[in-house]
Specification:
Length: about 350
């Protein structure tokens, strides 16, 4: 039975990516060595790193002045490193609080300067993206979390602002075209939409760096990682390699434009069923619904059937559908490699559940 993986992460990747990655573990490019034991200074891995960075540049259509690097530590580390590198002492940065990860980013940033939380949907349990806020023109940057995996909301467009945007794109990078002219920094943990856990992509406008007086330890300084081409220390070799393979797959399958079309088709299919089916309801504002993470619950009359629904999902090969422990319900995470057929399986299960329980 095919397993349909709706997990929020680590996430689904294309079968061909898994196959090529598996071969590299056994024998990388006929060297007789596993990639796992190969020197990160070897010409073979240097080629991998250069191709991965080149694909990032090509797919995101990075303008001159931007640099892409791969680092360790996950997006959670960047909650601190972004302000450490970009926020001058006694300076101000603007943040918007739209979910669990945005809230954590705000907490970390407060150690490095004055943080102005311009808007928050926390009191509404993060069920929408705040509107009608203003960003101070004297802020060093404006930080957003583009997609909120726990609560299922997403910025459909980058906000209009006069200051550089710093964006945590961990769960929706490479799924739609970004206007890079608005961007100062993007950071993204690989394990949602780019590759396996273990590496983090940084895309930064280089002229924003070097403007803080604080001491930045070498491992935390973006400039050093740029200078050393992501190999200042031993990089996460295997996650970078698999991310490279996945970016090749994205390019081969039509690039970001095609990935966006796929995400629209998947999300429209699941949300149409959530809205049609009297057993279920969505949990977020319709205009802010995430294309990556569809969140929904059983209507009050049917809430006692939650375990029954999870069981029929399991029997249909649907994995990872249970909602985040902090909100409950259900969450269908649909990253780039997910095929529409898998979403159809979930929709068919929901229809069948209605017929039997409604």
């Amino acid at each position: 039975m095919k397993i349909h993986n709706f997990s929020a992460g680590p996430s689904i990747l294309a079968p061909e990516v898994f196959q090529e990655a598996a071969q590299a573990v056994v024998n990388f490019q006929d060297t007789g060595l596993s990639l796992l034991e190969m020197s990160h200074r070897s010409k073979e891995f240097d080629a991998v790193l250069n191709e991965a960075i080149s694909l990032v540049n090509e797919l995101l259509e990075l303008p001159d002045g931007f640099k892409a690097i791969f680092v360790s530590g996950g997006a959670s580390t960047q909650f601190a490193l972004a302000p450490m590198n970009l926020l001058p002492q006694n300076g101000k940065a603007a943040y918007i609080n739209t979910g669990t990860w945005a809230d954590k980013a705000i907490k970390e940033a407060k150690a490095f300067g004055n943080i102005d939380v311009v808007a928050s949907s926390k009191e509404d349990n993060y069920t929408h993206i705040p509107k009608n806020y203003s960003v101070p023109s004297d802020a060093a940057f404006f930080h957003i979390t583009s997609n909120n995996t726990v609560f299922g909301t997403q910025f459909r467009n980058m906000p209009e602002t006069s200051v550089p945007l710093v964006v945590d794109m961990s769960s929706d990078i490479f799924s739609y075209k970004v206007d890079m002219e608005k961007i100062g920094l993007i950071y993204a943990g690989a394990q949602k939409n780019m590759g396996p856990a273990g590496t983090t992509l940084i895309v930064v406008r280089e002229d924003l760096l070097g403007k803080v007086d604080r001491h930045i330890p070498s491992m935390f300084d973006y400039r050093i990682h740029i200078k050393k081409n992501s190999a200042y220390n031993t990089p996460p070799v295997f996650p970078i390699y698999v991310s490279m393979l996945n970016l090749r797959w994205v390019k081969k399958n039509g690039g970001i434009k095609a990935m966006e079309a796929r995400s629209i088709a998947r999300s429209e299919m699941i949300y149409s069923e959530v809205d049609r089916n009297p057993l279920f309801r969505g949990t977020t504002a319709v205009e802010d619904r995430s294309r990556m993470n569809a969140t929904f619950v059983l209507n009050e009359k049917y809430q006692s059937l939650e375990n029954d629904f999870l069981e029929v999902c399991k029997n249909a090969g649907i994995s990872g559908i249970k909602g985040h422990r902090s909100v409950g319900g259900f969450r269908a995470s649909m990253y780039n490699a997910m095929e529409l057929d898998s979403v159809q399986v979930l929709v068919d299960v929901m229809k069948d559940f209605e017929e039997r329980k409604g």
